[in-house]
């Protein structure tokens, strides 16, 4: 009898600890179609499961009641209680549409699959609605999308061809890591044109991390990371076409398509941009280059089972941009008209990604990319040509369980630059970086979340002049504190580094003329921190206001500086001083009845280089910048937008000070069932640099161009049509 009772007790104990996997199905309540979502199991540290095709299996370790919190972009968050054991084959959850639910955006750059409200790292997200609006202004590339963001500056590096780089918080563009879907393929030789060759038509969101972000992304992420997130196939097919024409001869035609079934899906982007040469100030030199470029980006997705997603992609782009003397651009060159600057580029990027869910909040992600970039620069008296090969491999393991989320991984980055034309200065370079990283996110409570990370990198750089191997240990920490439903703060800090490179904004602006090979230089090392305060509340029944105040600090030691030697050649060396950027950003947002939206942002930047004699302010960094926008939108009917910008004074390299300037813009879009018509008036105040002083000096055969600190093309209007079905 005692044996029998013991067996009964043992069986009962086993039943109490029973385990079960339940299939969760997430649907759109309006049409019963599957929805891609994130399901967080509350009470287990918000361990997350990604539901990529409407269904996923969740593992429950014991009997009892569990609360499931379900979030998806564009839908209201819901919470459902499930009792284990569960008797039915599928647990169904239906979601209702939500027009304004920014707090439930799922952040991908931190790899933990959390909502933006629960990520300790400060991440700014540009959502699809804003991307779609900026497509109306500049569908060719993402320059306009980033130019109008607080704390980000698109720095033009060529007066005639329009090349540009991205600065965050006043720091040089080489300190910003650009990613596409987490792949790092936009550095070194290709960096000066990358922002011009990333189209926005296939993007669903852009994630921006300001300040040190080296734990997951390694060298180069000193000022921050910008991750462009592409659309993936949804349950409903998507087809769109955009045609745009501007008054200065710029024309764009692009299309995007996507679709999927149970086992496979695809996305496809095709875009063609062309532009006539344009001379707004009639000085005989182009402000907008003569250009043609094409981008083709197909991507295949495979779903062999509910827990596995495999994708293959290839992006190919080809571009030709020619600026300079308008007589030359009109094919009428003669002995008095010879100057031109011509850039020809081809970029091919192949990607592979495997995302394998391992159950109970765990997954394995494998990424591999191979990028080949070829570029030639030709001037009337100079030719520079080279190709850049980059390979990126990353293996990561993610675990979300209880109050802890873990990310472990390793990656390998290879880069080889080969100068194609013979030169007295051999400027070939090879770098190899292998790194391992770990990140831990701890939910100490519902209101306190701590994220800490550590990365170890070994970087080897070599060329014909020297070889150098360096090791980097890069800690990073972020803390989220929710004081109340209205108030919260994030604190973050860490170390970073940037490997030596020939390719900077300064060398880009002189087309690498007389730039000598790197020799006896070391990596730049940094430390920095950010602190912010968030406030959000409803001030009336139909009116909501939110406010964010960010403070930042970054210091870069051993900065790589370009100087002239006794032979009038440009040589890089590590300066004895440091670069320091401090300041703050203020962002405010007001929404009234979900139709009127008012945005305002202010940036104060104090960026100095202590190695500079006399005036130590970094050139081309405005201390004050203000951006604002008033948007009216009636869903499915019309969109109207009025934007205003103020840029304060800047120091140039020679110590002179530029005047402050302001600009205004207006856009309108009328929406119909399957198409919309849009028109945009950009900078209709016609603010441009040539209104203050000539941009070009010297004679026509040997012109000298001022540094670009303002708009060059002035007032531009464009309009077009978008079709969707």
Task: Give a structural overview.
The relative contact order is 0.11. The strands form seven sheets. This protein has a 22-stranded antiparallel beta barrel. Strands 3-2-5-6 form a four-stranded antiparallel sheet, with no helix packed on it. The protein has 725 residues and is mainly beta. It has seven helices and 39 strands. β15 (250-260) and β16 (264-275) form a beta hairpin.
| Structural class by secondary-structure content | mainly beta
Rg calc: 27 Å
Number of strands: 39
Oligomer: single chain
Poorly predicted sequence stretches spanning 5 or more consecutive residues: 1-17, 99-103
Portion in helices:
under 10%
Global morphology:
globular
Which whole number gives the mean pLDDT?
A: 89
Question: The biggest beta sheet, please?
Answer: 22 strands, antiparallel, barrel
Q: What share of residues are in beta strands? A: over 45%
- In DSSP terms (H or I, runs of 4 or more residues), the helix count works out at 7
Question: What is the distance, rounded to the nearest whole angstrom, between the alpha carbons of the first and last residues?
Answer: 73 Å
Question: Quick recap of the structure?
Answer:
This protein has seven helices and 39 strands. By secondary structure, the chain is mainly beta. A hairpin with a 3-residue loop joins strand 35 (661-671) and strand 36.
Observed structural traits:
22-stranded antiparallel β-barrel, 725 residues, 39 strands, 4-stranded antiparallel beta sheet, disordered N terminus, globular, mainly beta, 55% strand
């Amino acid at each position: 009898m005692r044996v029998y009772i013991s067996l009964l007790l043992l069986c009962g104990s086993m039943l109490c600890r029973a385990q079960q996997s339940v299939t969760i199905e997430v649907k759109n309540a309006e049409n019963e179609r599957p929805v891609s979502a994130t399901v967080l199991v509350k009470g287990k540290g918000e361990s997350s499961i990604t539901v990529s095709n409407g269904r996923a299996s969740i593992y429950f370790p014991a009997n009892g009641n569990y609360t499931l919190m379900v979030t998806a972009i564009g839908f209201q968050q819901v919470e459902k209680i499930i009792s284990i054991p569960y008797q039915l084959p599928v647990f169904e959850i239906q979601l209702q549409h939500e027009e304004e639910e920014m707090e439930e955006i799922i952040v991908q750059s931190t790899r933990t699959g959390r909502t933006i409200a629960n990520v300790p790292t400060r991440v700014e997200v540009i959502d699809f609605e804003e991307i779609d609006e900026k497509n109306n202004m500049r569908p060719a590339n993402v320059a306009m999308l980033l130019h109008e963001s607080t704390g980000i500056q698109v720095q033009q590096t060529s007066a005639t061809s329009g090349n540009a780089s991205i600065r965050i918080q006043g720091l040089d563009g080489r300190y910003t890591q650009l990613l596409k879907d987490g792949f790092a393929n936009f550095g070194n030789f290709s960096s000066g044109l990358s922002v011009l060759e990333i189209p926005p038509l296939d993007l669903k969101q852009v994630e921006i991390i300001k300040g040190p972000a080296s734990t997951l992304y390694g060298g180069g992420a000193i000022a921050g990371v910008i991750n462009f997130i592409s659309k993936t196939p949804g349950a409903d097919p998507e087809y769109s076409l955009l045609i745009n024409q501007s008054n200065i001869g710029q024309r764009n035609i692009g299309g995007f398509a996507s679709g999927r079934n149970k086992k496979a899906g695809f996305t496809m982007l095709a875009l063609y941009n062309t532009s006539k040469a344009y001379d707004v100030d009639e000085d005989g030199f182009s402000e907008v280059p003569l250009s043609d470029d094409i981008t083709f980006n197909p991507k295949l997705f495979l779903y062999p089972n509910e827990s596995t997603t495999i994708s293959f992609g290839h992006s190919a782009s080809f571009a030709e941009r020619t600026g300079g003397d308008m007589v030359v651009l009109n094919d009428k060159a003669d002995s008095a008209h010879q100057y031109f600057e011509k850039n020809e580029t081809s970029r091919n990027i192949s990607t592979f990604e495997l995302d394998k869910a391992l159950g109970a909040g765990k997954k394995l992600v494998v990424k591999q990319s191979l990028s080949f970039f070829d570029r030639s620069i030709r001037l009337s008296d100079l030719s520079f040509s080279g190709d850049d090969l980059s390979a990126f491999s990353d293996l990561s393991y993610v675990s979300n369980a209880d109050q802890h989320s873990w990310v472990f991984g390793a990656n390998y980055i290879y880069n080889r630059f080969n100068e194609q034309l013979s030169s007295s200065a051999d400027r070939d370079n090879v770098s190899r970086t292998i790194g391992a990283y770990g990140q831990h996110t701890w939910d100490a409570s519902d209101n306190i979340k701590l994220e800490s990370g550590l990365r170890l990198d070994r970087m080897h750089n070599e060329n014909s002049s020297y070889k150098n191997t360096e090791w980097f240990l890069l800690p990073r920490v972020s803390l989220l504190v929710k004081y109340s439903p209205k108030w919260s703060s994030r604190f973050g800090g860490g170390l970073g580094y940037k490997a030596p490179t020939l390719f900077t904004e300064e060398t880009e602006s002189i087309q690498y003329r007389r730039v000598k090979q790197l020799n006896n230089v070391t990596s730049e090392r940094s430390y920095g921190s950010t602190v912010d305060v968030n406030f959000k509340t409803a001030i009336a029944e139909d009116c909501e206001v939110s406010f964010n105040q960010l403070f930042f600090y970054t210091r870069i030691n051993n900065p790589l500086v370009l100087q002239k030697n006794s032979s009038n050649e440009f040589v890089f060396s590590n300066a004895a001083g440091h670069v320091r950027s401090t300041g703050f950003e203020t962002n405010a947002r007001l929404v009234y009845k979900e139709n009127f939206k008012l945005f305002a942002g202010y940036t104060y930047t104090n960026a100095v280089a202590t190695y500079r004699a006399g005036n130590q302010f970094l050139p081309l960094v405005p201390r004050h910048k203000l951006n604002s926008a008033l948007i009216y939108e009636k869903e499915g009917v019309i969109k109207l937008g009025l934007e205003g910008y103020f840029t304060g004074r800047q120091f140039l390299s020679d110590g002179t000070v530029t005047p402050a300037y302001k600009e205004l813009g207006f856009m309108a879009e009328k929406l119909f069932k399957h198409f919309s018509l849009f028109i945009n008036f950009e900078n209709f105040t016609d603010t441009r640099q040539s209104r203050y002083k000539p941009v070009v000096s010297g004679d026509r055969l040997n012109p000298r161009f001022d540094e670009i600190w303002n708009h060059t093309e002035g007032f531009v209007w464009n309009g077009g049509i978008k079709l969707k079905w």
